[in-house]
Design a protein that fits this description.
371 residues; alpha+beta
């Protein structure tokens, strides 16, 4: 830490351009090398270099090969949207690493042998490259007075090409949902535009997955699902982080963090389509909800631009499971995001007492396999 503190003091002087010292794809750089990323002109630029689109190597592309936190280079208050971008950058490391793990774990033959198109591995590499570009875009959105989070170590519950591709679909649709919340937190119009552009790219990834991998109609109705409390979805991704592995300079993720009880349907649920009755499963034994006897509670389901609240009976919990019916009014398309709240419609972040749970409706048959 002493070396890092000394290096930070050096960084707080005017930054010397290091564009000429080009980064090497695939090489895991040192802490000192990573600090060059404080200069927004260092290295390839997203949209101006094929490394973020058509690079087909196995080694990590820039800046995924420079994994330490980037320390502030100026003294002063954080910019108004720094916290939002820090949360998004930490989430992006999780998503980028997922694809990089897939690129390293599989090859073209892996997917062909599992019955998928012979372009599948190439597309996974290209999505990985896009996510590397997102890393750089998000780093550059954070002001020089704030830390730019580095990568933690991650672990993912896939064991073959099929389980990997199932997670692709869930991560992409979840990314689209939490970006609808983060854009509401962002105050700078240019930042809002950048997030919208990223969400459009995630939608392209999801469209490829639905059409090429699952043979599904990619259309999800007139609007994808809006979920207003992005940090609650981001918090669910902490399960991919190896405890104690994050750079010590990283801020809390997400910040602020409610640490709500996690939520899903119970294992062996036969269907998660609209109209199905499910039992709620709070999946972390050490973090269970506490329901007050004199309060009413609701399962609030977000789909498209609307939400529907369904009263639930919590009186006998945990001895008796809580059951609820997914609103039959919803189309079996896109994604449903569910929370448990103490107020109909979950009008505030603090009204949510458990969740969220992301319910995949496209392809519907995949949803129960992910429980």
């Amino acid at each position: 830490m002493a070396v890092r503190s000394f290096f930070q003091a050096c960084l707080l002087s005017p930054l010397v351009s290091v564009v000429s010292a080009g980064p090497v794809p695939g090489r895991i750089g040192s802490f000192v090398q990573t600090q060059k990323l404080a200069d927004p002109n260092y290295g390839p630029k997203p949209g101006q270099s094929p490394i973020f689109s058509t690079y087909h190597g196995v080694k990590a592309p820039f800046p995924g090969n420079l994994r330490d936190a980037i320390l502030p280079t100026e003294i002063g208050p954080p910019a108004e949207d720094d916290e939002v971008w820090q949360n998004l950058l930490s989430a992006e490391w999780i998503i980028y690493d997922f694809y990089q793990h897939g690129v390293e774990a599989f090859n073209t033959s892996s997917f062909v042998a599992a019955g998928y198109p012979n372009t599948t591995y190439q597309r996974i590499q290209e999505i990985r490259n896009n996510e590397a570009g997102h890393l750089r875009i998000f780093q550059n959105q954070i002001s020089p007075t704030s830390v730019k989070p580095g990568a933690c170590e991650h672990q993912y519950p896939f064991y073959d090409p099929v389980s990997f591709l199932a997670l692709v679909t869930v991560l992409e649709i979840s990314s689209m949902a939490f970006l609808t919340g983060l854009v509401q937190q962002t105050k700078n119009p240019a930042g809002q535009g950048a997030m919208a552009a990223i969400a459009e790219t995630e939608a392209r990834h999801e469209t490829w997955s639905l059409m090429e991998i699952w043979g599904e109609n990619p259309f999800a109705g007139p609007a994808d699902t809006i979920f207003p409390y992005a940090n609650q979805i981001l918090d669910t991704t902490n399960g991919f982080i190896v405890p104690g592995s994050c750079p010590p300079e990283n801020p809390q993720y997400p910040n602020p963090r409610q640490n709500l009880p996690s939520l899903s349907a119970a294992k062996n649920t036969p269907s998660l389509t609209p109209g199905s009755t499910i039992a709620l499963n709070f999946t972390t034994p050490t973090n269970q909800p506490c329901f007050a006897a004199d309060k009413d509670y609701y399962a609030v389901f977000f789909h498209g631009v609307y939400n529907i609240s369904v009263p639930i009976d919590t009186n006998d919990f945990p001895e008796k499971p809580i059951t609820v019916t997914i609103p039959a009014q919803f189309e079996t398309a896109g994604v449903v995001v569910a929370v448990v709240a103490d107020t109909p419609g979950a009008p505030t972040q603090d009204s949510v007492v458990a969740g969220p749970g992301v319910i995949l409706e496209q392809p519907a048959a995949l949803a129960t396999k992910l429980l």
